[in-house]
Amino acid sequence: MLDLGWFIFLSPFFGFILILLFGRFNRHLPAIISSASILVAFLISAKIFLGLGSGTVYQSYTWFYGIHYGIFIDHLSIAMALMVSFVSLMIHLFASYYMGRDPNKHVYFAETALFTAGMLGLVVASNLVIFFLFWELVGLCSYLLIGFWFFKPNASAAAKKAFIVTRVGDMLFLVGMALLYTYLSPYTSHPLSIPYLISQSNISTIVAEIGRYRLGLVAVLLLGGAVGKSSQFPLHVWIPDAMEGPTTVSALIHAATMVTAGVYLVARVFPIFLDSASFSIYLVLIIGSFTALYAGTLGIIVNDVKRVLAYSTISQLGYMMAALGLGSLIGMSAVPFSIYHLMVHAFFKATLFMAAGAILISLMDLRDIKKMGGLWKRMPFTVSLMFIGSLTLAGIPPTAGFFSKGEIVSASYAYFLHYKTIASLAPYLFVLFGEFFTALYTFRMFFLVAIGRPRSYLAEHAREAPIWALLPVAALAVLSIIFGLFQHGFYSYFVPSFFVVAIPPLFDWLPLIFALVGIAVAYLFFGTNRWKSMKIARNPFYRLLKNKYYLDFLFTNIIAERVIHPLSSAFGRFERGYNTSNEKFGQSVVSLGDTFRRLQTGVVENYLTFIVAGISVILIIVLFLGGL
Amino acid sequence: MFLGLILLYLFASSIAAFGMKKSGYSFSLITTFVVMMLFIFLFIRDFSSGYSGGFLSYQSYLIPGAPGVRFSMAVSGFTFPLIIASSVVFLAAVGISNRERTTPSFYGLILFAEFGMVSLLVSRNFLFFYVFWEVVLVPVYFLISKFGTGNAARISLKFFVYTQAGSIFMLLSIFALYTYHSNLTGISTLSISSLMAPSFVSSLTAFEKGFILFGFLLSFLVKMPSFPVHAWFPDSYEKSPYSVTIVLTGALSLMGGYGFFGILFPLWPILKGGVSDLLIALGIISLVYFALSAMFQVNLKRMMAYASAAAMGFVTLSFGAGINLMGGMTSIPSASNAVLALSGGMFQMLAHSFIVVLIFSSLFIIVLRTGRETVMELGGIHRDAPRLSSLFLIGLLASLGLPGLAGFIGEFSVVVGTYGYIGALIFIVIFGMLITAAYHIWAAQRSLYGPYNETIGKIEDVSPFQFSILLTLAIFLVVLGLFPNMFFSLFTTYIGGLL
Predict the structure, then answer these.
(1) Residues A65-99 pLDDT 10s
(2) What is the per-residue pLDDT across A540-549, written as a single tens digit (0 to 9) for each?
(3) Could you say which residues from 188 to 227 on chain B have a Cβ atom under 8 Å away from some Cβ of chain A?
(4) CA distance linking residue B380 with residue A28, whole number of Å
(5) Beta-carbon pairs below 8 A across chains A and B
(6) Residue A326 burial (CB < 10 Å; 0-12/13-18/19+)?
């Protein structure tokens, strides 16, 4: 008997199949089926959430030898499931407006339903292998959806890039599972089962048997998977290109599904990180905090409104990772710290993307913010929603972003106070200056979009989207404001006695000060017309940022074109030469005697008849003598 | 009895098909379909109620006047899935052949090859094993030389010489085994189970063991195809008609894997160490070498030929590493690298057969519609033929090992299982898998997506009949990827039965 929890992901999956079968017959049906199936998933999650108490749901069956499939629902997974299904539902409702006129929308809604099913399946998976299956299903759907407008060369190239870059991380994840399986298979019959790995009593036995160092290796490899999926440095290069897909797909990828999967993976198996050698968790911290700053600096020179948001996602994911990396000080409280920011981020990022989507529709897909301007007057409701999203992203009170991100920055200061080394100071500085850059690029985008005078014909004639389409966006915007109220309740839902950050009050306010300074700088340059007279094209810093620190150059022009491509060409040429030399050798042997040639050029039918006759004689004898 | 009748039916049909001109296509389509259904029926009858390892004997009797030659047919939990896979492969090979083909011998040869293939898999006597090994090769040789494109005579000769060289050494090994056995025990037998008993083989001298193993290994590695005895395959795979390519990649490559897991496997205590390390090295090299060579190809068919050979590298690797990890195992533990690696290798063979059928069939239809086979000349055909391109994409994704499709189970099990023995070398395997993903996705992006190449002109999508057939196959790949245990547990039990 299947537990109700299975239908959290089966419901959108059935939606996917229904749309595939019947979606083409009615133009409203795809959106209705996908939204309804996700609504069912949300309602089931809510029911389980209310009935879960302090227990867990665990049901599993044998998949194949030593590997189980099943569902495991605890506080972490049900909270994620609620968020994913709710945000995804809102995005689907908006997509019924945004994608409403696309001729292939039955394909679109089928794929987004499958996308959501994959993410929900990942959230409730009970085994790392099943987790990996859904993980790749999510990757596949993102590949298909980024390349949804397959006839655009950029879109299909971006889809390819997303698939291959995340595949690098996935392979590390796979090796991580190989290590874990090999280490643990002598001691248990289900080495990759999640409840087994995260139970506190088992983890100490595991540590005793395989040692902290090996467990640390496993953790680092799993982190490799998370870095690819959650677009952390240096595997973040696919995200900005992925903006070629429909905007609602970007919203799904960035808010509800896909990129949060990596953070979720680390949070899911967090006891492994906590109890392994300390290098693994420090790596989480340093990668996360560095990404938070790094992506923030990249955001300030991008002119494509969607790419600004893409860099903001990378940076915010860095905050989530950094929060997890603080675990060596704050213990299991790192999980709620990180997941709380993940949820707040989902709300405001979906808001921002859908607001941007509404703008793009009205501006006929003009994405250059330097050609916008003055849209607040023309699209007041949409741009107000964007304003709320921007405030939350920058972490300004009273929005939830202030609480979720402020807590992470304060905790990293507490981390420094606790360890008092350079290595523990760096993450704090990264996340603190990240606050400044976040506010700067967010409000640079916002000021260029919203105020001033329209700078193109399209911007002059922008029109508000219909109110019914913006209602789901508004719901998310409201959530991103009021969700701050639940901060402590959220923390204690995960860890009843969570870590209370106690640092000097000045440092508590420092992130806000940095953010406000960022907004002020943004206003100084981009709220006025001053940016038009800036001469930065020759500035080396600008060039460095414009070339994305040459990381794309390294991957594409050096690794792909100068290493892999010559390598394959060398192998290919060697292989061709090997084949020819084989033939040459064969020919010289053949020319020695004519026997073989005669055999080959002889009458084919004669040869065949002989074989057939021989075989039939043997068979007849055998079958008859044996007493058929 | 029942099995013997199916084989007799196949044999009779192949002879009948030689004489047919117009109805050859429909006749052999019906035959291969009926044979497949019969095998599935037989499989369900004999294996659904529970399989407890070992061989299920169907027929066995001495042949008078020939000492030690016993005609025996038996199947195991490992061979029966392979039989089903090959019957599907041959059905597809007939199904996608040009209906207009009226040369009488084409279908006769294909059916004859199927007869040889299945008989090979059920023979438990080395004499018949060898005879049927040759019976498979001969018709395929004629299929390549008569119906292939390019320099078919030379290509088919290369194929024949390579495989023949392998099998001659295998014949010598069989004779040697026979002689040693009768000298040592006084019993003349050609039974595979007696000659492949570790207790007997381990009593031989090192030279004798080496001589025997050399013949078998050479013959199996050629068929795999594995580096460095692979020079026959790229041309044969590329220049044959698509039906024959499907037979070569889907069915004939099973012969090599069957040789390892079905024939040599009981000797694992002897193979351990030197021989298995060699196999691991060859497996890893094949995997990476063929993947990198595939990346270099621009012809989609040749690229997929290399991809198929690279996938078989996992099988060699899993066999080598698996037997090394066996240790002193006396029963199947609930979790162990050895069993995972070995069963994974077997599963990989099975999955690979179904995957290449989907890939080459859909590619064949693409080539029929557009008249182009190279990546550069195609482009954007998803616009006009979304169903066709989706089917091809599913094949590609399965081939690169995407979870949820059949290819993943095998690759996952092999990677995770073999890690226990090969350690950090796993990163070379991972590198090969990354390259595989890269060129598969590259091929899809260039040929299926992007702007439509208008010089192709308007093309039609796959016909509803072909679509439903290929969709069934694609769904089967998903089912196999989601519920692998119907075969995986048989493989595990099979290993347990041989301990």
Answers:
(1) 888 899 999 999 999 999 999 999 999 999 988 88
(2) 888 887 777 8
(3) none
(4) 28
(5) 192
(6) buried
Q: Give the angle subtended at the CA of A88 by the CAs of A85 and A89, to the nearest 5°.
A: 80
| Chain CA centroid to CA A216, Å | 23
Per-residue CA distances from A369 to A68, A288, A300, A374, A540 (Å): 50, 28, 12, 11, 23
Distances (CA, A) of B472 to B264, B347, B391: 35, 20, 10
- Per domain, the residue ranges of chain A are 1-214+246-260, 603-628
Q: From the CA of B372, how many Å to the nearest CA of chain A?
A: 19
Residues 6+ apart with CB under 8 A from A562: none
Q: Which residues make Cβ contacts (< 8 Å) with residue A578, sequence separation at least 6?
A: B228, B231
CB atoms within 10 A of CB A494: 20
Instruction: Round to whole Å and give the CA distance between B16 and B27.
Output: 9
Q: How confident is the model at residue A628 (pLDDT cuts 50, 70, 90)?
A: very low
**Closest of A296, A446, A436 to residue A386, by C-alpha:** A446
The full DSSP string for B408-471 is: HHHHHHHHHHHHHHHGGGHHHHHHHHHHHHHHHHHHHHHHTSSS--GGG---PPPPHHHHHHHH
Q: Do A136 and B485 touch (CB under 8 A)?
A: no
For A621, which residue in chain B has the nearest alpha carbon? B63
CB-nearest to B441 from A164, A188, A190 is A164
Q: Are B473 and B354 in contact (CB under 8 A)?
A: yes
- Tell me: pLDDT of A612 over 80: no
Return the HEC string of A282-343: HHHHHHHHHHHHHHHHHHCCCCEHHHHHHHHHHHHHHHHHHHHHCHHHHHHHHHHHHHHHHH
Domain residue spans of chain B? 272-499
CB B320 within 8 A of CB B257: no
What are the residues facing B125 on neighbouring strands? B191
Burial (CB count <10 Å: 0-12, 13-18, 19+), residue B65: exposed
* Interface contact A150-B63, CB threshold 8 A: no
Show residues of chain A in contact with B414, CB under 8 Å: none
Give the rounded distance of the alpha carbon of B438 from its chain centre.
24
Q: How many helices (H) and strands (E) does chain A have?
A: 29, 2
What is the number of residues in chain A? 628
Chain A contacts in chain B segment 2-61 (CB below 8 A): 4, 8, 11, 15, 18, 59, 61
User: Which residues of chain A neighbour B380 with C-beta distances below 8 Å?
Assistant: 150-151
Query: Model-level pTM?
Result: 0.91
- From first to last of its 499 residues, chain B has per-residue pLDDT tens of 688 888 888 888 888 888 887 788 888 889 999 999 999 998 888 887 778 877 887 777 777 766 667 778 888 889 999 999 999 999 998 888 875 566 778 888 889 999 999 999 988 888 888 989 988 988 888 888 888 887 888 888 888 888 888 888 889 898 888 888 888 888 878 888 888 888 888 888 888 888 889 999 999 999 888 888 888 888 888 888 888 899 999 999 899 999 999 888 888 888 887 888 889 999 999 999 999 999 888 899 999 999 999 999 999 999 999 888 887 777 788 788 889 999 999 999 999 999 999 999 999 999 888 888 888 888 888 888 888 999 999 999 999 989 989 989 999 999 999 998 888 889 999 999 999 999 999 888 888 888 888 888 888 888 888 888 889 999 999 999 999 988 998 899 888 888 7
Q: Are A322 and A481 in contact, with CB atoms under 8 Å apart? A: no
> Which chain A residues have a beta carbon less than 8 Å from that of B4?
623, 628
Nearest CA in chain A to B420: A182
Give me the amino acid identity at B495: I
C-beta atoms of A177 and B71 within 8 A: no
Please measure the distance between the N-terminal and C-terminal CA atoms of chain B and give it in whole angstroms: 29
For A628, which residue in chain B has the nearest alpha carbon? B1
